[in-house]
């Protein structure tokens, strides 16, 4: 039951279309399924880390230390703006590429979204809210066998599987459409993605800078 609850949590946190979702769609359309899935799995792994921290009661550290939360906000916002600029620059030549990218490039896709998700204040706040109900108090509450780490592992695994299921569906659906989308549309989608991701980044960056002003 705990695993299923955590799986639903993973899907719920991953599902809202934000900068990571836009990035996953854009990469799936332009670069193929592997790139989109790697992008999503980076977010899923970061979600799992926050799931682990939430399970042991540490996810509130970022909010307890305002300077850390502010630094994460600024760094994440700047990173999003930088990525948006790169997508916009490449949008003029955007076209469906063969899905045979090197491992290093796919791993880079994974790392960028892993770092972005870890630096996202919304992800932190989401897990604080979720684990207020599912966190350390509920772990082992009904267990007489003294296995809190088994319950913790179930929560982390559930968050990862739920998040991964969402990203698998999103990247798979986008990649399935890529062969039928005209090049002009592909370029437009890339530009729209750049504007949306850049908007998210600017909002986050300005909000962070205002905290230290």
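-> sequence recovered:
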């Amino acid at each position: 039951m705990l695993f299923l609850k955590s799986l639903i949590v993973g899907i719920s946190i991953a599902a809202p279309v934000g900068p990571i979702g836009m990035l996953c769609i854009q990469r799936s359309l332009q670069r193929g399924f592997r790139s989109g899935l790697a992008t999503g799995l980076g977010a899923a792994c970061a979600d799992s880390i926050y799931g682990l921290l939430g399970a042991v009661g540490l996810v509130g550290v970022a909010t307890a230390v305002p300077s850390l939360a502010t630094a994460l906000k600024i760094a994440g916002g700047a990173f999003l703006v930088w990525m948006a600029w790169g997508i916009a620059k490449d949008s003029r030549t955007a076209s469906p590429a063969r899905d045979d990218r090197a491992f290093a490039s796919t791993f880079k896709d994974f790392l960028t979204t892993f770092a972005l998700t870890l630096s996202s204040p919304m992800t932190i706040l989401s897990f604080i809210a979720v684990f207020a109900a599912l966190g350390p108090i509920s772990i082992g509450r009904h267990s007489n066998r003294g296995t809190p780490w088994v319950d913790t592992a179930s929560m982390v695994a559930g968050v990862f599987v739920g998040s991964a299921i969402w990203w698998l569906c999103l990247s798979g659906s986008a990649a399935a459409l890529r062969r039928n989308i005209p090049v002009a549309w592909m370029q437009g989608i890339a530009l729209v993605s750049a504007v949306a991701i850049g908007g998210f980044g600017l909002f986050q960056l300005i909000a962070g800078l205002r905290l230290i002003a």
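The radius of gyration is 18 Å.
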